[in-house]
Amino acid sequence: MTIEIRKHGRVGAEILGIDLSNPVSADELKQVRAAFAEHGVIFFRDQSISEGQHIAFARAWGPININRFFAAHPHHPEIALVVKEPDQQHNIGGGWHTDHSYDFEPALGSILVARELPPQGGATAFASMYAAYDALPQRLKQQLEGRKAVHSARHVFGSKAVAYEAVQDTRSDGRIGNSAAADVLDDPVHPVIITHPLSGKRAIYVNPSFTLHIQGLSEQGSQDLLQEIYAHCSGPDFQEDFHWREGSIAFWDNRATWHYAYNDYHGHRREMHRITIAGSALA
Ligand code: SIN
Fold first, then answer.
1. How many folded domains does the chain comprise?
2. Which of 105, 164, 182, 222 is a plausible cystine mate for 156, CB 3.0–4.6 Å?
3. How far is the CA of 282 from the centre of ligand 1 (A)?
4. How far is 170 from 159, CA to CA, in rounded Å?
5. pLDDT, one tens digit for every residue, the chain (283 residues)
6. Whether 247 contacts 48, CB under 8 Å
7. Any idea what the CATH number is for the domain that residue 52 is in?
8. Of 156, 239, 274, best ligand 1 pocket probe by most atoms within 8 Å of the beta carbon
9. Is 87 a catalytic residue?
10. What is the extent of the structural domain holding 179?
């Protein structure tokens, strides 16, 4: 089978002609890797993979970063459970973010496999931080060049979490926990504009969930600038929804995209399995 790569609207690409339940050949991996670097998020349809095959595919990209704050799969600790039960109001990931920017070596990407879907709704939106950077006004590009920002997980997963409403709800039934681990995390600093390690393209690397402030500016100046960047990045020109079906898999690059899980299926269950792959320090 030959692999076909089909653009997914404004963000991402669908990979056709590959069966992830079989070992991926070196040549297939090369093509998939190139599409991943180019598009920032890739999608697969009509797959039927076991948890073990999910883990094996993830390991082909790098070591697995085991999530400290999400409930783990009972038999496969490498897999974080992203579940919303019918009686829950809040969901995991219901705000624009990029996974693990609170790590000193931020995650390369996350592979999300649909396991149980609501009858409708439950899509995930993706925004391209390559496209958002390219369209930044020159004034902002100049203002941000060389700047660094502090990121944190404490205000999201720690005992004093206030920023991320979803946590309040999900933690209470044990889906997210480990606030003691979040409370003692040090906050990393990353460039606001990165050169992507795979594609060499420039991308914006701050996000509304985990970025605290831009260094070297007053608190107000930093907040004003971050809000301006966020308004720009979440604009309609840089985003696209992905509508899940049985057998769908999304693999996003956390250095090139933001994502956002819609919370529009109250009363129904949604279960996704996520594996996050370790990355490296950003420059
Ligand atoms: C996530 O934010 O990692 C989960 C996204 C989703 O459930 O669609």
1. 1
2. 164
3. 23
4. 13
5. 689 999 999 999 999 999 999 988 999 999 999 999 999 999 999 999 999 999 999 999 999 999 888 888 999 999 999 999 999 888 889 999 999 999 999 999 999 999 999 999 999 999 999 999 999 999 999 999 999 999 998 888 887 775 444 444 454 444 466 777 888 889 999 999 999 999 999 999 999 999 999 999 999 999 999 999 999 999 999 999 999 999 999 999 999 999 999 999 999 999 999 999 999 999 9
6. yes
7. 3.60.130.10
8. 274
9. no
10. 4-277
Nearest residue to 153 via CA among 110, 182, 184: 182
Helix (H, G, I), strand (E, B) or coil at 208: coil
Which residue has a Cα nearest atom 3 of ligand 1? 93
Query: Do the domain assignments include residue 283?
Result: no
Closest CA to 191 of 255, 127, 107: 255
**Nearest Cα residue to atom 7 of ligand 1:** 261
Closest residue by Cα to atom 2, ligand 1, is 93
Angle (nearest 5°) at CA 83 between 176 and 247: 140
Which atom of ligand 1 is nearest the CA belonging to 261? Answer: 8
Q: Which amino acid is at 89?
A: Q
39 is an active site residue: no
Give yes or no: 274 in active site: yes
Minimal-distance CA residue to ligand 1 atom 1: 93
Annotation marks residue 8 as catalytic? no
The residues, ordered by sequence, that sit 6+ positions from 153 with a Cβ below 8 Å of its Cβ are: 69, 102, 182, 185, 210
Q: Is the CB of 55 under 6 A from ligand 1?
A: no
Pocket flag, ligand 1, residue 82 (CB < 6 Å): yes
Is 232 part of any domain?
yes
Cβ–ligand 1 distance for 117 under 6 Å, the answer no
Q: Please check whether residue 282 lies inside any domain of the structure.
A: no
